[in-house]
Design brief:
There is one protein chain. With 227 residues, this protein is an alpha/beta fold. 43% of the residues lie in helices and 14% in strands. The strands form two sheets. It has a three-stranded parallel beta sheet with strand order 1-3-2, sandwiched between helices. β2, α4 and β3 form a beta-alpha-beta unit. Bound molecules: 3-methylbut-3-enyl trihydrogen diphosphate and magnesium ion.
């Protein structure tokens, strides 16, 4: 969800105003994608590296989440959306951890769409978290395969992303779903997250449909399962 700061700067507003505008965008994007048949959406809202920002900005992002999680969850719940948190909750405020757990609990039986919210998420952190879990469970090395490893990630049984849309013009992964994105199609756009509209989403989906996904094989039909 990149570009909030620049959206605000372009309007001579404080960066926080951009982040608020970014949150307001969530419902619209989730609904638009749901209407187009997408069943899982993941938003990268706060990375394990975002703690390096000035403390005033980190505080603002935490306050915005704390204020918005209730109202946003109510709207998403009405729309049949299940909320799942991806990331390490431990460094977050106790009240925020509770609010996240409540949002997950309240929406857990919804099945119109799953919305993963990556907050204090980092791909490397997630991989280490999985390794620690596997060791703590005493799994023997011979039993560790891709399926087992995936189930120890924050995304658990969730399918790997087909398409990753990066807003705000950057062309890097920024520690997002490193394991899961092995064969994801990547689409980047200069459009800032708060300006993301249905037209740009349609362009991203059209671009995705044009891609030939071969998963390392020549024709898309690998002979040996995963390629
Ligand atoms: C939002 O956009 C990303 C978050 C960490 C919430 P940015 O804050 O990176 O916005 P730009 O890149 O400065 O425009
Ligand atoms: Mg940015």
């Amino acid at each position: 969800m990149d570009g909030n700061g620049r959206w605000a700067a372009g309007r001579k507003l404080p960066r926080e105003a951009g982040h608020r505008r970014g949150v307001a965008k969530i419902q619209q994007v989730v609904r638009a994608l749901g209407a187009r048949g997408v069943s899982v959406v993941t938003l990268y809202a706060f990375s394990t590296e975002n703690w390096r920002r000035p403390s005033a900005e980190v505080d603002a992002l935490m306050s915005i989440l704390a204020e918005e999680i209730g109202p946003q969850t109510r709207e998403l719940h009405e729309a049949g959306v299940r909320l799942v948190h991806l990331g390490d909750p431990k460094p977050l405020d106790a009240a925020l951890q509770d609010a996240i757990a409540t949002a997950e609990q309240v929406t857990k039986d919804n099945n119109r769409l799953t919305l993963n919210v990556a907050f204090n998420y980092g791909g490397r952190d997630e991989i280490l978290h999985a390794v620690r879990g596997i060791i703590a469970d005493g799994v023997s090395p011979g039993d560790i395969d891709e399926g087992l490893f995936s189930r120890y990630l924050y995304t658990k049984e969730c399918p790997d992303p087909d398409l990753i849309i990066r807003t705000g013009g950057e062309q890097r992964l920024s520690n997002f779903l490193l394991w899961q994105a092995a064969y994801s199609e990547y689409y980047h756009t200069p459009v800032l997250w708060p300006d993301l509209g249905e037209q740009e989403l349609d362009q991203a989906l059209d671009a995705y449909r044009q891609r030939q996904r071969r998963f390392g094989a020549l024709d898309g039909h690998s002979g040996h399962g995963e390629a």
